[in-house]
Amino acid sequence: GRALSADASGRLWEAFSFSEASVALAKFTPDGGFLSSTTLPGAQGQGRGTIRFSTAGEAIAVGGAPGGAGDPLDLAVFRVSADGGRVLSSATLDAGLGLADLAVDSAGDAWITGTIQTGGTFAAPDFKSSLALWRFSTETGLLSLATTYVGPGNLNVGLGVALDPGGQVWIAGLIENPATGAILEKLDLALWK
Question: What is the predicted pLDDT for the residue at 181?
Answer without folding.
Answer: 57
